[in-house]
Each structure stands twice: as structure tokens, then as C-alpha cells.
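We store sequence with structure; for instance:
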Amino acid sequence: MTKPSRRPDAAPPEDTAAVRAREALSRKWSYLLSSVVVVALSRDELDAELGAQLDALCAALHSEPFDPAPFEEVGERLVALGYVNEPGLKRTVDVLGKGLLTLEEFRSSDQHTVRVVGGIGALTCGFTAARARAILDQQESMQRSLLKAAHDAQRDQRHSEAKFEGIASSSTNGVLIVGLDGRLAWGNESISVIIGRPPEPGTRLVELIAPNSIVAFREMMERVLSERGEFEREPMQLVRGDGEFAKVTLTASLLRDDEGKASHVLVMADDDTELALLQGELRRQSLHDVLTGLPNRQFFTTHLETVLRRADPEFGVTIFHFDLDAFGLVCNSLGARVGEHLLQHVARRLRAVMSHENAMIARFDGDEFGIVVENTALTPDVATTMATINADLAEPTYVDDHGLAVSVSAGVVHRPPPDVDPIELLRTADLALRQAKRDRRGQWELFHTNEDTSGRRDAALAVVMPGAWEQGDIGVVYRPVRDLATGGLAGVEALLHWDLSDRCAELADESGLILPMGEWLIRIAAGQAQWWRQRGELDQQFGVRLTHHQSTDADLVSRVSKVLEETGMPGARLTLSMPVGVLGVADAADNLSTLADMGVRIALDDFGLGPRDLAWLSALPVVSVLVPKDLVHRQDARSATLIPAVHDLGVNLCVDGVETAEQEKWWREAGADLAIGAHYGSPLDAGEFLQKLG
């Protein structure tokens, strides 16, 4: 019985949740594998075996540099278990290809996605090679049995001839008895199947050999007749009856008469066609998506490297990275099976739409697809292609009597340089896709190099922000809120400040650091307000702006309540501003109402002065709105006419971004109440701010 094995370097992770996730994946692998193959292990032994192999794969994915060899070893190990067939490999590829990327330990980096894809390919190669060796070993064992039977027949000719003929006739290998003159004396039924016709006795064996194999065949026969070894073995091609060629491996050895003299040559032909087809099918499966039949990300990436090199210098190529809009809604409401049918429908429609172009369509992961188009003078522009795709997908397809229609969002890279790395190219297409999907559906975004440079710089800053905060490089600054009617100080706004970026809050919001950092900002501002109030130096309203994630944070109310309790600041002295765009989220509206019930004053940021924004003022306890910079600079009559509507609802209006005296005058005359901006000075730390006020 094959015993379970555990690699010494494949220790499971220490994190309990990660261990449970791996165990669940290995049990799923064991269950699905045992349903299609028979192995010489009990269920518990198979669970332990596959658990050990999964640990080895995970260790390889974490290793630096990445070495796919453990994946190849696992493929070989599957064959060593015994009776593991093509369905077993297919189940393994399906389970690991999807399951590894669902493990929490591999979700944080696109690098792991590339490694998993490469690892699965290595596993398939290891399986194929081990399977081929097993087949060859079986064949060679049979050949040796036949040779032994033939040699035994020489010692007892009367019994051996009948025995040899019985073995040879039942063999799946082609068997030929050839005279020393090279003419056929006898052949079994299997050789007829291989070459598509029964060989005629007396036919010269060389006539069955394909032209490109004749030289190798003659050299092999010369070695056999010169008795250089027990037998000779060479890959050859035979001419079939239909004119095609059959790939075989010929094994030849001498037969002797009673006196020990050479009398005939025994030739056996192993049909390699099935093995070649198996290898081709396994390779196809490793490069194609099982559900849709489309190329997968690995195949697409390899193809992309080729088309970049051969692209027309004038027209280049275009890469589309698609994502189905609201696909999760379909799966959650109608089930995964309906979602799979929808993915197959989208794959068919994309093929049809792009059928007139030299293009490859691939399915990446989940509901994501990719297309690379080798452009010509007749290729439609990007806008036309996107409009055509979305118009085609807008036609409903029916699954279980449900009429479903979808749209796609896309990131597009048009005419990239031919020497760009395909992995980098897919990253930029994905970046453009994320830009296209921000609060929108059915849109597309063209990648721009300058945006990528800025995005990478911001991403790098976001990564090091926790360390900068811990070291004290990120602080709190204050700026005045002015009363437009009197010019007096109406309040103070507290802001995060970092010398390396003027988008400190936005970067923290993107990285998730804003939740603890935002609470810290409110605590510092409230503590400073109380300090100034107790010393009789300043007693004003203090404001803090909340980001999107802060506004929808389920713990926002408890965070603010804790800060007010710790600092002793009255809730009525704190103004929190929420972006008006988050109010459609239930958690944000609930947070706003609860904070207002606590006495905290609530303002709406990025207020557009439109009818939809005005409607929120009637539904929610808002005391102030902040008009964004673009409207402040516009100074149009429509904005001025809507200010009385804000006042009629009992809400005051603050203009954010006043930079000149002319802007201040225009908004004061228009009826605005408060103003913030560079016109009133730069944000300062607590000491400098109080000194400037004095």
C-alpha cells in the first residue's frame, strides 16, 4: 500500500484560521478525487496524503524566489498513488486552480495569482511525465515478457510457437516476425489497427516506414543484426493505409533457431498516438478555462507576449480587461448555476462580436474576461467596440425562464510599446478597469501613463503611511472657518497633515488606515479644543471631515462616543462632515442620525446644490453644507439662486476653497454664511494657529 508522505519543509501555517482553510481545501480535493479514481488508500489516508501535498504547494507559493518544482513533484506523486487517470487530474486542476486563490494567505498579492497559474502548469507537466513513464514501464515490461517468451520458444519449439502466438495475438502492441532478408513473415491484429491495413506476408518492412524515419530504421536494424545488444528501441513513424503517419516506438531483437543461429527479427510497435493525444489534451486543459472553453490567463499572457512582438508598428494592439457588472447580484439571487450559464453566454457573445478581428478572448478569474486585438486599418476604435459589446450583451438571454442581460465595464490599454512586460500590461489594464468601475457601470477607461505614475506614487506612500504615523511624521493642523458677514472666526477645522502628500486622508481611506487614524484625529482635535477652552484662549466650534469609509464604519458612533467621554468635549461643540455621496448607504445615514441624536452637529461635504442633494436636507438632521471648490470657482447664477433654498431648510452654507478676495465678495453677496480656504491662511499646528489668531 502507498503510504502518505509529508515533506519536512511543508509545515502548515501557525495561524488557526489558515490551517482550517487548508484542511477544508485538502478534504474537498480528497473527496472529489476519490469520486473519480480508485487508489490503494483509505479515505483517512488519502486525506492525510493530500493535506501533506497541499502544505508543500503552499510552502512553494510562499518561497522566494518561487520554484514550481514542488508542484511538479505533486503531479508525479498523484501518479504514484496508483490508478489516477485524466478525470483525477482534471479534478485536481479545478480544485487547486480555484481553491489556492481563495485562501486568505494568497489573496493579498497578484504575484500569488501568477505563481498559482505557473504552479498548476508545472503540476500538469509532472503528472504527464510520470504517467508517460508509467505507460512506458508497462510497455517495456510487456515487451520483455514477449522477448522472454520468444527466447523460451527456441528451447522448446513445439510448445513455444503456440504460446508465443497466443501472447502476441492478444497484445495491444503491434508484433511482427521479419526474416533476415527484411520481409514480413507474420503480423498480429494490433499492427493492422496501427497502420490501418493488414500487412501482406512477404512485404519488405522498410516499405512500412515513413520517409523521415528510414535512416533511423536502417541504423537500428544494423545494430540488431550485428548483435550489439539484447534489443534496440527507437521512435519511428509508420505509413498508414490512408497516407497519414502513425507515431510508434519500434523495439527489435533477434530470434534464434534450435542451433542458436539468428533466424528472424522480432519487431514490436508501441502506438504512441494515444499518449500524444493525452499529452495534448492535458496541455489544452492546463491552458483553457473549463467552464467556457476560452483560453485562461496563463495562455493569454503567453499569447500577449507573442502579439506584442509581431504587432503592426502603425496600428499596434489593444487590450481590454472586462468585468461583468452586478454579476454577484445574479449569483446571490438566482444561484451559482445560473451565473455559470451567464458566463458561458458572455463568452459566446464576445466570440461573435470579435469574430471579424484577429483577437484572442480569454476568461481570467470569476467574472473577468480579457481580449487582445491585433489592430488593422479596419479595426473599429475603442468607443465603437465597447458600444457594440454592451449593445450585444444588453439583449436578454434566458436561463430557467429568467431573462438576463448584463453590461461590462472595461479597462483599456491602446497601442502599448512592443517591449512592455505582459504582466505589467495586464496590471495597467486592471488599474484602468478599477478606475472605470468607481461608482459607475457599463463604462470604460483608457489607461494613461501619467495617471499610473501618480497612482504608483500614491500607492507607495499609502504602504509606508503606518510607519510614518507611528514615527510622528503625520500630525494634526488647524485652519479657520470664517463668518462671511462679519469676517470673524466662526470655527476651527482639524486636518491630517503629512509633508510627503497633501492627500493624507484620501490615501489613508484607500488603504483602510483611516479608521484608527480618523479616530485619532478626532481625539487630538477634541483634546486641543478642551485645552484651549479650559485656558480661556479659544472657545469655538471644531470640525472634522469624515471620509467614505469612516462614514460607513459600523463602529463610527462608538468611536466618537468614546472620544467625547475621554476628552470631556461637549458633543454640541463638534461638527462632523460626511460626503454627500455616501448617504445612499444605510450605515452612513444611520450613523448620521445617531450622532445627531448625541448632540454632534452634522454637515454634508461636497454638496452640489442640486435637487437630489437638497432632498437630503429635508430627510436628515443636517445643520450645514460645504460647497466644493469647483462650484466655488464657478460662481454661477444657478448656485446663487439655490442658496435661499438651503436657508429655507434651516441649514447654513459654507464655501470650501476660497482663494481670493473677489471670490469671498461674490459668495458673501450671494448669501453664503461661512468660508474656508487659502485666502484665510494655510493650515497650521496648534501653537502657530493660536499665535496667528492672537
